[in-house]
Design a protein that fits this description.
Bound molecules: biotin
Largest sheet: 7 strands, mixed
Shape: globular
Order of helices and strands: EHEEHEEEEHHHEEEEE
CATH superfamily of the largest domain: Bira Bifunctional Protein, Domain 2
């Protein structure tokens, strides 16, 4: 990964750069990177705060030969790879909040956004967007993010070289991707569970159909979170915001 790197100083979103890149012939493993995003995108139509040089804003192109319905596994795979890279480079206790928010001390340090194009049942390509708050001072987060976001520097009192982190992320992602393609999702699912926060705890899942209460039990191969309800039934949750009770 990262054998081809397309860097720009500022862009609306590196996701857009990557989609453009595919049209210009970019291949699997190509990386699209910016120092600043003016319209960084988050999941569920949210914005992603991406100020100049304070974080890693990048998108990686993947072209796995897997059916479309397995795409959620790729995002979970990515959260495992990125968690490993941060732990390795910083020693900070990063955990994963389902499905793929990376937290330190309950605050979000990194988000992952996958966008895919495909037809019929086959994936054409996947753009894996990674946004990581690296050297952002705690005080400089916008008011609405201050209580929910953090950065590696804010947590450790150190600053980090972004290039070194990026190299580690690419290395770990390549490793989990190879593992996924050769051995399937099971080893990834296992690692994901070992990094997950909230497993065994009471949570509320705010789903599009309304809130659901239960104990987070694990990850299903479909990518769903397994929730044990008060009646003792384990149900899969496919789309929700999870909060600890
Ligand atoms: C989330 O909502 O948690 C996902 C955030 C993903 C942000 C990254 S930054 C690089 C890439 N470009 C974007 O516009 N978004 C992703």
């Amino acid at each position: 990964f990262g054998h081809a790197i397309h860097y720009v100083e500022s862009v609306d979103s590196t996701q857009w750069l990557a989609h453009q890149g595919v049209r210009s012939g970019a291949k699997e493993g190509a990386l699209f990177l910016a120092d600043e995003q003016t319209q960084g995108r988050g999941r569920m139509g949210r914005k992603w705060h991406s100020p100049p040089r304070s974080g890693i804003w990048m998108s990686l192109l993947l072209q796995p030969q897997i059916p479309l319905n397995l795409a959620p596994q790729l995002t979970l795979m990515a959260s495992v790879g990125v968690t490993r890279a941060i732990r390795r480079e910083t020693g900070l206790p990063v955990t994963i909040k389902w499905p793929n928010d990376l937290l330190i001390d309950g605050k979000k340090v990194c988000g992952i956004l996958t966008e895919l194009r495909g037809e019929q049942d086959q994936i054409h390509y996947v753009v894996l967007g990674i946004g990581m708050n690296v050297n952002t001072p705690a005080a400089s987060f916008p008011e609405d993010l201050k209580t929910i976001a953090t950065s590696l520097a804010a947590e450790s009192g150190r600053t980090y070289r972004r290039a070194k982190l990026i190299a580690a992320i690419l290395e770990e992602l390549e490793h989990v991707y190879d593992l996924y393609l050769t051995e399937g999702f099971e080893p990834i699912r296992h690692s994901w569970e070992s990094f997950a926060c909230m497993l065994g705890q009471s949570v509320t899942a705010h789903t599009p159909q309304g809130p659901r209460q239960g104990i987070a039990r694990g990850l299903h191969a479909s990518g769903a979170l397994l929730l044990e309800t008060d009646e003792g039934v384990v149900v899969p949750v496919y789309s929700a915001d999870i909060r600890q009770v």
